[in-house]
Amino acid sequence: MTMKTINTCGTEKYSPLIPAMIAISESAPGESLEIVMDAPEAFNDLKEYLAEQGIGFREIYDGERMTLQFTMK
After folding, report:
1. Burial zone of 43 (CB within 10 Å; 0-12 exposed, 13-18 middle, 19+ buried)
2. Domain ranges of the chain
3. What's the predicted TM-score (pTM) here?
């Protein structure tokens, strides 16, 4: 199964959480997502949300870019 990538880097007009949450809400159980962010506050909020939902995730740090990879329940 392929991983769907949502890149929110450079988002300035609205929170990078908006496209991330839309992708999460539209995903089917078992679908793998990769959310790429450059906003530390939004990244931490998304990690907290996933933890509250019981969704395990992988964190990847590459300079200013932060990535969360996970599979929907």
Report:
1. buried
2. 3-71
3. 0.92
